[in-house]
UniProtKB/TrEMBL annotation:
It catalyses: tRNA(His) + L-histidine + ATP = L-histidyl-tRNA(His) + AMP + diphosphate + H(+). It is an enzyme of class 6 (ligase). The keyword Transit peptide does not apply. CDD domains: HisRS-like_core, HisRS_anticodon. This is Histidine--tRNA ligase. The gene is hisS. Keywords: Aminoacyl-tRNA synthetase, ATP-binding, Cytoplasm, Ligase, Nucleotide-binding, Protein biosynthesis. It is found in: Cytoplasm. Its EC number is 6.1.1.21. It comes from the Bacteria. GO terms for molecular function: ATP binding; histidine-tRNA ligase activity. The keyword ATP-binding applies. L-histidine binds at D89, L90, T91, R119, Q133, D137, R303, Y307, Y308.
Length: 503
């Protein structure tokens, strides 16, 4: 290669905070989304889709970083100097959609939507700038019965995709309770919005950094193990202890927890209203039979976004996994949401209650892989049937075989490379094929094809030449099943039989 060609050669590289997805992940994701969609529709939610791009003023005010249009979101100006941004989540675009189509939509309006969202934030382990969410929301229902229903649906969704009961918990809290605590320590009003947000973010990290880490974040700040310093909320010691008392108010049951919260918010009408709503949600959960550990009242849940106005909830997976450092940790949150009564209202100038949940698609898929969910393995285990090309002058005939399989609904492909039979078999293995179709000149003269079961063949190869000792007769019978000839007209039936053998 010449020096000029080397100079012009591009470096293949992926921007930080982004990831590529292979066919296995794509297939598993689609399979999982189908199960989530089934659950949402079972609850009466219908699909809607909003674009990736919105006006920045429809999004920015409610993001964690509020000072500049580009802080927290990817933004640009169009040709008439309007600021546009890639959507940060799926909730703010829904609020805009509902406000714009308010008169035409049924109320309450129940919808779901999935898609990519984008965050202009510092990437890190498990923290991406582009990721997928799958949301469900009820707009126009002021009753906390709508919040309780979302929590029940979240539990049903996790079980439908393959998370066993006992391996998850839906935690419920109420931002009004925290608002009452913040009012009591002097952080009420618009002037303290930025400090309240720091407090929210600090509490939201309780599972990651523990009470001592949260105490630092509520005070002067915290230095993490990497050496990065996060500035704190600057609260006084007594205020810090009151916030920590709020997060630690969980009891053995909903009755005990709400009693503890009554004490924490004493003197705050808004806090008392939040506790009353939690009691009502607990009553509804009990009436529906979900009070068996699937859904619990947990004061440590606050959610990091400022637009939540009432009940908030989080789906937490309780089983343990190995993290990147080899430590055993609890898997943690895969979904969260809450009530946001102000988002639609700011477009309409009138109260419009709303509540909803967002599932982190990649996080949930990672969880399903961790528990060995059949849903994931079923979506990723089968590659196409490969028809080998033994005689290039007969490629038209091989294409006829492929077309016959496809017309029968069997995923199939013709080998289009230039390699010989051995390399073609390796290609089929790499494609995850469960069987190949072979027709050389001898088979063609007889009007036959040979079917080779790659899965069974690999199993038999692992038994060795002795044919598994005492079970040699069975071994030989299985060898006959692993590679056999059939009339060309029976190729569909033969391939179907092999595929069915492996589920």
């Amino acid at each position: 290669m010449s020096d000029q060609a080397k100079a012009q050669k591009l470096l293949a590289r992926l921007p930080r905070g982004l990831s590529d997805r292979g066919p296995a992940d794509v297939a598993a994701t689609e399979h999982m989304l189908a199960k989530i969609r089934e659950t949402y529709e079972l609850y009466g939610f219908e699909a809607v889709e909003t674009p990736f791009i919105e006006f920045t003023d429809a999004l920015g005010k409610f993001l964690p970083d509020q000072d500049r249009p580009n802080e927290g979101v990817f933004s640009f100006q169009d040709d008439d100097e309007q600021w546009l941004s890639l959507r940060y989540d799926l909730t703010a675009p829904l609020a805009r959609y509902v406000a714009e189509n308010f008169d035409a939509l049924p109320k309450p309006y129940r919808s779901y939507r999935g898609g990519w969202v984008f965050r202009n934030e510092k990437p890190g382990p498990g923290r991406f700038r582009q990721f997928m969410q799958f949301d469900a929301d009820t707009v126009g229902a002021a009753s906390v019965a709508a919040d309780a229903e979302i929590c029940m649906m979240a539990a049903d969704t996790l079980e439908r995709v393959g998370i066993s009961r006992g391996d998850y918990v839906i935690k419920v809290n109420n931002r009004k309770v925290l608002d009452g605590v913040l009012e009591a320590i002097g952080l009420g009003g618009d002037d303290n919005a930025s400090r309240r947000l720091i407090v929210l973010r600090a509490i939201d990290k309780l599972d990651k950094v523990g009470p001592d880490g949260v105490r630092d974040l509520l005070g002067k700040g915290r230095m993490d193990p990497s050496g990065d310093f996060t500035k704190g909320a600057g609260l006084a010691p007594d205020a810090i202890e009151r916030v920590l008392a709020f997060t630690a108010a969980g009891g053995d049951n909903a009755l005990a927890t709400t009693a503890n919260l009554d004490a924490v918010v004493a003197g705050s009408d808004r806090g008392a209203e939040g506790v009353a709503e939690l009691r009502e949600i607990a009553s509804l959960i009990t009436a529906a039979g979900y009070d068996d550990g699937r859904i619990v009242i947990d004061p440590s849940v606050v959610r990091g976004l400022e637009y939540y106005t009432g009940p908030v909830y989080e789906a937490d997976l309780t089983f343990t996994v190995q993290n990147d450092e080899g430590q055993t940790v609890r898997f943690g949150s895969v979904a969260g949401g809450g009530r946001y009564d102000g988002l639609v209202s700011r477009f309409r100038g009138e109260p419009v209650p709303a509540t909803g949940i967002a599932i982190g698609v990649s996080r949930l898929l990672a969880a399903l892989k961790a528990v060995g969910s059949p849903l994931v393995s079923a979506a990723t285990s089968r590659g196409p049937v490969v028809v080998l090309v033994m005689d290039r002058s007969e490629i038209g005939h091989y294409q006829t075989l492929v077309a016959t399989l496809r017309q029968a609904g069997i995923r199939a492909e013709l080998y289009l490379g230039s390699s010989g039979m051995k390399a073609q078999m390796k290609y089929a293995d790499r494609r995850g094929s469960q069987c190949v179709v072979i027709q050389g000149s001898d088979e063609r003269a007889k009007g036959e094809v040979t079917i080779k079961d790659l899965v069974l063949g690999a199993e038999l190869a692992g038994l060795g030449k002795d044919g598994a000792g005492k079970d040699r007769e069975d071994y030989l019978a299985r060898q006959a099943e692993a590679q056999f000839a059939v009339p060309e007209g029976e190729v569909v039936a033969a391939v179907t039989k092999v595929l069915a053998r492996h589920g």
